[in-house]
Amino acid sequence: MTRMQTAFLRYDQKTIVLHWLTAGLIVLLWGLAQIIDVFPRDSDMRVHVRSVHIVLGVALGFVLVTRILWRLRDGRTLPPSDTGLLNVLSHAAHYALYALMIAEVALGLATAWTRGDSIFNLFSIPPFDPANTALARETRSLHGLVANLILIVAGAHAAAALFHHYVRRDGVLQRMLPEM
Hints:
The chain is mainly α. It has helices at residues 3-6, 13-35, 44-73, 84-115, 133-168; strands at residues 117-119, 123-125. A hairpin with a 3-residue loop joins strand 1 (117-119) and strand 2. Helix 3 packs across helix 4.
C-alpha cells in the first residue's frame, strides 16, 4: 500500500477519543502539578487541587487500561505510514509513551501512599511509613521526572505528526483527528 493510499485510512472513533482523552488528561495533570505548591501547605485549596490531580491520575489509569485492551482486541490497526527507520522510531515512541504513562500512574499512586494524602478532606490515604520521608520525596521526584519525560516524548510525537502534515503532506495526522 502506498503512502497516498494510507492517507485516506482513519482510526476508529473509540481509538481517536481515547487518544485525545489521554493527551488532554496528561496536559491537565501536568498543569495541575505545576500549581499545587503555589498554595500554602495547610490550605483547603491545596488539598482540593491535589485531590483533583489524584482523581484525574486514577482516571488516566482507567483510560490507559481501556486503551490498551481496546488496542489489543478491537481497535483498528492501520498499515504503517513509513518504512525502515521512521517506522521503527514511530513504534519506539508509542511504546515509550505507553511505558512512561503506566510508570507515571504507578508512581502517582506510590507518591500518594508514601506521603499520605487527603482527598477533598473527605477521606485520607494514610502514609505507608510516616517516618520514611525520604521514600516519599523519592517517589514524588520520580513522579515529576517521568511526567516531564512524557511531555518530551509526547512533544516529539506531536512534532512528528505536524511534520507529516505540513512537510510530507501524507495524511498521517488526519488518521487520528476527529471527523468534523
